[in-house]
Specification:
There is one protein chain. The chain is an all-alpha fold and 269 residues long. The protein has two domains: 31 residues; 212 residues, Orthogonal Bundle (MetI-like fold). The protein contains twelve helices and no strands.
Length: 269
């Protein structure tokens, strides 16, 4: 047995020189990339500015943090949360029919391919482009952010929904059909129980993504906490930046704990 293994090792192609060449190529590319890195500030002021940023973040503006008016962190975080949540819900509602029409196991291939191309086209355009388009249509505000989140959610949610639909256990539907069940009963007892856990898991994951994207979309005026954040950074008010970031961290931690518990319930049934 040992002799056979040794013979197999001897017959193995000697490609060590290829591995060394690839390693040298990677090292050379890294060295060439580092040579293009340049510092924009050679006077040492960059370190002082970085120190002010860190100091402001770790010493947040408590007055802004605990301000419960429409200009406070709490209200802006609530607006961001609503944009992300409603955007996920609207995107999911629009994704359900698109997903069923794009599933190859339910629709003819030309029809399914047509809807898949439509979904792919929606996914291709970045969220910033959608945000700028809707701001031109509806004006700056939370409604533009909601429309942007809804349209951006369709691409990913539809893709995940299609995979769940195509993985349906057809034997269950055949058994219900043999038992004389109606179409509504087959949907109620054969399709929904299989799709519900996957659909809910996808929605929770997309909501987490939308919560972060809604913050970024605020930078272009699509509502939420992004606009006050960029204004505070432009005015070098790092204490206010720290207050906003503290609020975001707390909100995301709370959402993460809740979503983890929901996922656990879905997995355990």
């Amino acid at each position: 047995m040992n002799e056979a293994i040794l013979k197999m090792y001897e017959r193995e192609p000697k490609n060590w020189y290829m591995k060394i060449a690839i390693a040298l190529l990677v090292v050379g590319l890294l060295a060439w990339s580092l040579s293009a890195v340049q510092s924009g500030n050679d006077t040492g002021e960059g370190i002082k500015i970085a120190g002010k940023i860190v100091n402001g973040i770790f010493h947040p503006d408590t007055k802004l943090l605990f301000d419960f008016t429409t200009s406070g962190v709490a209200y802006l975080l609530l607006e961001t949360l609503c944009i992300a949540f409603l955007g996920t819900i609207v995107g999911a509602v629009l994704s359900v029919p698109l997903s069923f029409f794009a599933a190859f196991n339910l629709m003819p291939k030309p029809v399914a391919l047509l809807f898949r191309v439509l979904i792919m086209a929606i996914r291709t355009i970045p969220a910033f482009v959608y945000g700028l388009m809707f701001i031109r249509v509806t004006g700056p505000g939370a409604f533009a952010g909601l429309l942007t989140m809804s349209l951006c959610s369709i691409g990913m949610i539809s893709k995940m929904f299609i995979e769940s639909i195509e993985n349906l256990d057809i034997k269950i539907l055949e058994s219900l059909d043999a038992a004389g069940c109606t179409m509504f009963q087959k949907i109620r007892y054969g399709i929904l129980p299989q799709l519900f856990p996957d659909f809910m898991s996808t929605l929770i994951y997309r909501f987490d993504m939308n919560l972060r994207d809604a913050t970024v979309l605020g930078l272009v005026g699509a509502g939420g906490i992004g606009a006050p954040l960029i204004f505070a950074m432009s005015a070098y008010k790092w204490n206010q930046v720290g207050a906003i970031l503290v609020g975001l961290v707390v909100l995301i931690l709370i959402i993460e704990v809740i979503s983890s518990k929901i996922r656990t319930r879905l997995i355990s049934g």
